[in-house]
Amino acid sequence: MKLTEKDKADLLALDVPPEDFQQISEAAQLKYTKYAVYAKGAEKGKHISRDEAIRLLGRKEWLSGLSRSAFHFTACRDTLDGASFVLFDSHKLFAD
Hints:
Structural class: alpha+beta
Helix content: 40-55%
Largest sheet: 4 strands, antiparallel
Number of domains: 1
Order of helices and strands: HHEEHHEEH
Distance between the termini: 18 Å
Number of strands: 4
Radius of gyration: 13 Å
């Protein structure tokens, strides 16, 4: 998945420098980042697709989590309804 021009504008608004876009774009690929959703307070979550993560978070919040995970292995963001959170796991980005 490549970042759109709107994605890049949204990342700039989050103070993400343009030189980070390439690594974030790589992290957006399904082979590098996996997603799981956890109900708040739950010990176990369930794996979800990238599209489901975007639906639960909204695209801007998904970009925020992805940009963090792309440089720090993992990140999490609260869902739009506040009842759960999505875990981003990009550790495979660092294994290749």
